[in-house]
Amino acid sequence: MKKSTAFLTQAAIIAAIYGVLSLITYQFSYLEIQCRVAETLCMTIFYTPAGVFGVFIGCLITNIFSGQVLDMIFGSLATLIAASLTLPIANMIRKKHGPVLKIKHSLLIPIPTVIVNALIIPFVLYYGYGVTEMGSQTSTLGVLGLMAFSVFAGEVISCYVFGPILVTVLNRVRVTAKLDINRD
């Protein structure tokens, strides 16, 4: 009972942070040129498996605000797939290198997030939002290719610029929390 309550609490906190981050950065969290800063939270999966559900639920809630059904379904599903693929990577790193995530190892965590979103989200944008031209491209393959690059770049910025900052903070919080527990 205690573990499931902690799991649900952690997932809810991650989902809430994801939603808030996405909504306060709304201007660049949606459409073809996006940098959804909340995707940085894929790093939480290293620290707790509740991160998988937290990131998924946070994305689902965020996508509900978009009002686009295909985004709610497939955008959220892309995040769930990426988070599910991230968990074994996180477990492998934790097993091999311990409970503190080093920055150099943190570079492996977002790989599924970056790749899965770059492959799926362009189709959501094209067919769900009707973004049928980008730059001078109007052909379906050209537009999808440019959007894939744009989503890829946004995910790289979110995960590889902000990710190490989050890892540094979470490592410090983890060490501080451990020290506080040991004092009692």
Report on this structure.
The chain has 184 residues and is an all-alpha fold. It has one domain (2-183): Arp2/3 complex 21 kDa subunit ARPC3, CATH 1.10.1760. The chain is 76% helix and 0% strand. The protein contains 7 helices and no strands. It has helices spanning 2-24, 44-47, 50-66, 69-97, 103-106, 111-128, 140-183. Helix 1 runs parallel beside helix 3 (50-66) and helix 4 (69-97) runs antiparallel to helix 6. The radius of gyration is 17 Å and the shape is globular. The model is unreliable at 179-184 (pLDDT under 50).
Which key features would you list for this structure?
single chain, 184 residues, mainly alpha, Arp2/3 complex 21 kDa subunit ARPC3, 7 helices
Write a brief caption for the model:
The chain has helices at 2-24, 44-47, 50-66, 69-97, 103-106, 111-128, 140-183. By secondary structure, the protein is mainly α.
Can you identify the CATH class?
A: Mainly Alpha
Q: What structural category arises from helix and sheet content?
A: mainly alpha
Share of residues in strands: under 5%
The share of residues in helices is over 70%
CATH-level-2 architecture: Orthogonal Bundle
Give the overall silhouette.
Answer: globular
Major sheet details: none
How many structurally independent domains?
1
- The total count of strands amounts to 0
Order of helices and strands: HHHHHHH
- Stretches with pLDDT under 50, minimum 5 residues: 179-184
What is the radius of gyration computed over CA atoms, rounded to a whole number of angstroms?
Answer: 17 Å
Give the termini distance in whole angstroms: 23 Å
- CATH-assigned fold name: Arp2/3 complex 21 kDa subunit ARPC3
- The overall pLDDT average reads 90
Specify the number of helices.
Answer: 7
